[in-house]
């Protein structure tokens, strides 16, 4: 039984919400059916979150009501019910919420999407502060946009809560009071900021999703879903690990080849996105492109390995013909790839669903997002499917989706392929257990029994088998901990953890206590991993946290992992990169005092750091990274007002040389401005001059999924972005999402093995 049931009225919205939950460590599956038998069959696989796309955005109200009723009733009981609504208030909002009310749910609807400037104030829907009706975003709808949400719910049992109530200290009681009547009802809540949405989520969760005698459902946008996922993960101390019997996501069945894009919009924004897609190497085909001669020409191009984008005629679309246009596109897409199986990029929820239905795809697993709502999923036939809502994304979004697909490392083989299979090219990753007295053993086990642990790599732990068994017991997860003597002895099946154990820890080592024994063992785990890497036995390293004081107590005086790895691999200079879903940061200096850091910074070091970051981003699939370089002084020195000309002396010469070599490095930038712009998506990578300049913003912007990457070693090394957490060690409440992400990024950035002949 799923913990969370989500209903969406179109596919792009379903993918958007599904990805919000996977980003917080939940397993999720998107289902493209409302048939009760198929729903029960597909939703019984063990996913924590089941997302049902009812495909009712353009349906008649009665049909939409029936579909939602069937979906929620047919998928089985869930602890949490979330109804995804369109941020522009399109579709059958009233009818679909009425279906939930008919099933006995009170509904709290917070339909704002502040991340894209779509808000609700005084029950009026706004876009960038202006009325929705004046935005032009309803131009293809058969009726005008509502000026007030009361218009959408006329005659229905709906109440409204304004911003004053949302920002009060008693939001739960305000919600309970308006839903306290004898019959189920809907409350529509204003929202202008993410804090407003977060207050609603906190209130609903504090009420335990109940208004008293009735269950409570939450409804709103993908941003609200993300906040709900974050709160549910925190409430449950959700550690994102998967028992051995949990559903394993499908794996892609082929190396990435040609991509077929279907762009169901002719808007100005869509045309700009297609232009960038063409610049990335995709052939753009309109309805009358002579060079393709219709579907056979497109198919021939795909068969040659060329990626193709199908587009619609330019000009305003008659709303009465939009459905036929989308169905025509889906038919063209099906004919164009007969006998082939290209990966897909689909824009617009209706377009996406029509194409997926035409290809017989019935379920998908959301994987990742390149921008808000621009999601890549894995279909049940093994292909990658990238989707985005029609009105979402900047001009680069389609090109970013294309690059992400092209750089994907999903293997053709099942995740249970043994390492002896000569056709298996997944890289081997050495996973060091870290300090055995901290949470390292727990996050290591939790990550390696996760459903996707072996999808992209073959990890082997360097650590203590007994300690890992204790960690599995603490987490309450079944795990088969198997000691192996060499990487070649490892077997990779879900639930099995392969361990090379040098037997350095005492069996009675206490949890949460700094010790020389644990520090010494952690040192040697890293040493063994480096030796395996230098011998070519592993292609990457992923490290759990060690404790610097314990390391020093054992006589190994190194500032941290980065310097220890550089020592063992004989590298004079490496860089620390922190990676989160919102921003990536590489540091010019790290573990030295601030005065020493400023003294150490010089143009050569800045240039080498930026070059390492540029190379790492390209290996991660960003073909032309935009890099923001921070200044040292406030306001970048304000033309000499602050500091002693450090920017001109230490940074500017490096940027000039980098730009001359074609690297898009910009700066020196005021650090606050640089991180603001990076959080908005303007920069792929930020270069911080010293430790806290980079670490502070990263901790705010994404520590839950933060990953520490060492750049400049012979192999890639990733790590969690947290410490040993002695205070919670051994208690089974460690959050392993960062370790899962660290392992994923190690797999993504490590080279694939050359296939044996």
From TrEMBL:
Keywords: ATP-binding, Carbohydrate metabolism, Kinase, Metal-binding, NAD, Nucleotide-binding, Oxidoreductase, Transferase. Residues 5-222 form the Four-carbon acid sugar kinase N-terminal domain. It comes from the Bacteria. GO terms for molecular function: ATP binding; kinase activity; metal ion binding; NAD binding; oxidoreductase activity. Residues 408-427 are annotated as: Disordered. Residues 260-395 form the Four-carbon acid sugar kinase nucleotide binding domain. It holds the Pfam family NBD_C. Belongs to the four-carbon acid sugar kinase family. Belongs to the PdxA family. PdxA2 subfamily. This is 4-hydroxythreonine-4-phosphate dehydrogenase.
């Amino acid at each position: 039984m799923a913990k969370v049931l989500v209903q969406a009225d179109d596919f792009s919205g379903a993918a958007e919400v599904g990805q919000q939950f996977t980003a917080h460590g939940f397993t999720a599956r998107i289902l493209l059916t409302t048939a009760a038998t198929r729903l029960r069959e597909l939703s019984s696989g063990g996913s924590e979150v089941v997302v049902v796309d009812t495909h009712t955005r353009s349906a008649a109200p009665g049909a939409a009501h029936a579909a939602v009723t069937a979906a929620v009733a047919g998928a089985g009981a869930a602890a949490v019910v979330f109804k995804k609504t369109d941020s522009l208030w399109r579709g059958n909002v009233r009818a679909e919420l009425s279906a939930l009310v008919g099933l006995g749910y009170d509904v709290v609807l917070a339909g704002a999407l502040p991340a894209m400037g779509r808000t609700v104030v005084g029950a009026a829907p706004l876009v960038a502060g202006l009325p929705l009706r004046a935005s032009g975003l309803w131009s293809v709808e058969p009726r005008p946009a509502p000026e007030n949400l009361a218009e959408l719910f006329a005659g229905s049992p709906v109440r409204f809560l304004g911003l004053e109530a949302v920002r009060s200290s008693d939001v739960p009681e305000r919600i309970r009071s308006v839903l306290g009547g004898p019959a189920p009802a809907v409350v529509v809540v204003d929202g202008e900021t993410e804090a407003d949405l977060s207050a609603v989520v906190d209130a609903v969760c504090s009420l335990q999703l109940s208004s008293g005698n009735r269950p409570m459902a939450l409804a709103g946008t993908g941003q609200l879903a993300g906040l709900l996922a974050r709160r549910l993960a925190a409430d449950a101390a959700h550690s994102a690990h998967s028992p051995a019997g949990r559903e394993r996501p499908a794996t892609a069945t082929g190396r990435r080849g040609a991509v077929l894009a279907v762009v169901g919009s002719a808007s100005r924004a869509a045309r700009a996105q297609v232009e960038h897609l063409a610049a990335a190497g995709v052939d753009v085909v309109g309805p009358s492109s002579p060079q393709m001669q219709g579907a056979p020409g497109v198919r021939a191009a795909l068969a040659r390995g060329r990626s193709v984008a199908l587009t619609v005629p330019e000009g305003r679309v008659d709303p009465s013909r939009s459905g036929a246009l989308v169905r025509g596109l889906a038919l063209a897409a099906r004919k164009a790839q007969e006998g082939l199986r290209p990966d897909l990029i689909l824009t617009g929820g209706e377009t996406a669903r029509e194409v997926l239905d035409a290809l017989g795809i019935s379920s998908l697993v959301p994987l990742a997002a390149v921008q808000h709502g621009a999601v890549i999923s894995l279909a049940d036939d093994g292909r990658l499917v990238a989707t985005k809502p029609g009105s979402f994304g900047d001009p680069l979004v389609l090109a970013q989706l294309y690059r992400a697909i092209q750089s994907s490392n999903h293997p053709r083989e099942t995740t249970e392929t043994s390492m002896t299979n000569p056709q298996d090219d997944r890289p081997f990753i050495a996973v060091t257990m870290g300090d055995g007295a901290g949470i390292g053993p727990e996050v290591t086990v939790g990550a390696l029994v996760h459903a996707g642990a072996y999808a992209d790599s073959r990890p082997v732990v360097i650590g203590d088998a007994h300690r890992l068994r204790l960690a599995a017991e603490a987490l309450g997860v079944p795990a088969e901990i198997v000691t192996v003597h060499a990487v070649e002895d490892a077997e990779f099946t879900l639930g099995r953890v392969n361990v090379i154990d040098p037997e350095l820890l005492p069996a009675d080592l206490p949890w949460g206590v700094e010790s020389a024994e644990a520090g010494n063992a952690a040192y040697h785990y890293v040493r063994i991993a480096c030796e395996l890497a230098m011998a070519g036995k592993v292609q990457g390293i992923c490290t759990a946290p060690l404790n610097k004081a314990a390391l020093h107590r054992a006589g190994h005086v190194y500032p941290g992992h980065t310097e220890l790895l550089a020592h063992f691999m004989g590298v004079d200079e490496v860089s620390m990169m922190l990676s989160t879903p919102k921003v990536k940061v590489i540091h010019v200096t790290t573990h030295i005092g601030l005065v020493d850091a400023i003294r150490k910074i010089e143009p050569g070091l800045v240039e080498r750091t930026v070059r390492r970051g540029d190379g790492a981003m390209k290996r991660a699939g960003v073909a032309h990274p935009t890099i923001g370089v921070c200044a040292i002084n406030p306001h970048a020195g304000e033309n000499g007002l602050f500091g002693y000309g450090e920017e001109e002396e230490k940074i500017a010469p490096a940027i000039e040389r980098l730009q001359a070599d074609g690297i898009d490095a910009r700066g020196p930038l005021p650090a606050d401005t640089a991180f603001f712009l990076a959080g908005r998506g303007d920069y792929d990578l930020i270069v911080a001059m010293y430790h806290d300049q980079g670490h502070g913003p990263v901790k705010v912007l994404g520590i839950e999924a933060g990953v520490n990457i060492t750049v400049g070693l012979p192999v890639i090394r990733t790590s969690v972005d947290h410490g040993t957490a002695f205070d919670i060690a051994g208690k089974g409440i460690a959050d392993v999402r960062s370790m899962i992400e660290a392992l994923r990024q190690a797999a993504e950035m490590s080279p694939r093995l050359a296939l044996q002949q």
